[in-house]
Design brief:
CATH architecture of chain A: 2-Layer Sandwich
Shape of chain A: elongated
Distance between the termini of chain A: 9 Å
Number of domains of chain A: 1
Strand content of chain A: 35-45%
CATH superfamily of chain A: Phosphoribosylformylglycinamidine synthase subunit PurS
Helix content of chain A: 25-40%
Number of helices of chain A: 2
Largest sheet of chain A: 3 strands, antiparallel
Largest interface: A-B, 35 and 35 residues
Oligomer: homodimer
Radius of gyration of chain A: 16 Å
CATH topology of chain A: Mth169, Chain: A
Strand order of the largest sheet of chain A: 2-1-3
Structural class of chain A: alpha+beta
């Protein structure tokens, strides 16, 4: 059994209304100094050892990220 | 300027319908061997160097995560 993390973030050129909302709210709430907030998704998968990197890449690209508007990183982590 | 990543995941005892939906769909779509999928959020912040760890912890707990149902990790990353 292996643990895999897939981080999915909006591409830099894509507007990120959720992140912007957080960034704009912080000064109003007394927290200065945060210049940018981007919000994305994090997936944690448990996969059989038989699942290879190519399969993981395909799963991430097809089902976890939207390649048009998002960048993503797949990595295996220690259990 | 420092980069900070905040990973927010549903607590283990909390149902995660989004993750379960992905996990259940994968075998149907031809991908076997994924036994669990959990979906959370990833925030990437850019903050002034003057922002200390205590402030970051407060921001994460108050605005980025829901402490009742989510666990979170704050970490500074290399730019």
């Amino acid at each position: 059994m292996a643990r895999v993390v897939v981080d999915v973030m909006p591409k830099p050129e894509i507007l990120d209304p959720q992140g912007q909302a957080v960034a704009k709210a912080l000064p109003r709430l007394g927290f200065e100094g945060v210049t940018s907030v981007r919000q994305g998704k994090r997936f944690e998968l448990e996969v059989d050892d038989a699942v290879d990197d190519a399969t993981l890449a395909k799963i991430a690209e097809t089902f976890l990220a939207n390649p048009v508007i998002e960048d993503w990183v797949v990595r295996r982590v220690e259990p």
